[in-house]
Amino acid sequence: MNKKTTEGENPLSRFIYETGEILPLDVNYLPEKFLVECENNCNETPENKIKGLNEIKKLLEADKVTKGIQFEDDFLRQYLRHTKYEAAPAFGKLRNFTHLRTNYNYLYLGVHTEYTVIPSTKYSTVLPQRCPDGSLLFLLQLGKWNPNEMPFEDFARITFLIAIQALRHPLTQIAGMTFYR
């Protein structure tokens, strides 16, 4: 398997071929190298996970805007990972999220089922495999979108919902997303 890369060959394809390190989209565990990366880059330890969740829940409950809202632990954890388990900055980002939801609530509304059959609305795809770095592959073909068949508000809503749902996955929180267009 140690063949030379020929001219014009994609080095990423060669890497995948040689190492076999490609993960499916829906991984139901975190591979060891990503657990180590999460500990090193996100300061995620068992102690910090408990401490961070407890601190951010206290901040959320004490805030007049977020008081009474039940946030799932995995949802809170994505903000804690982003801020290296520092509760105060994670809380600020969650406040921004709640403001977004209040001020742009149309982004969170359902999507018309008719969009599943209109060809010009099939402009985005989450691919079934991940990059070798673990990132999610998101293919955007914006030339397929026809604003006469789907208004911009619906286009923005669908794209936003796909991205926000993808970020619920722990591996995507750690490794990120790769966008191709």
From TrEMBL:
GO MF: phosphatidylinositol bisphosphate binding
Cellular-component GO terms for this entry: membrane
Top-level division of the source organism's lineage: Eukaryota
Protein name: Alpha-tocopherol transfer protein-like
Gene: TTPAL_5
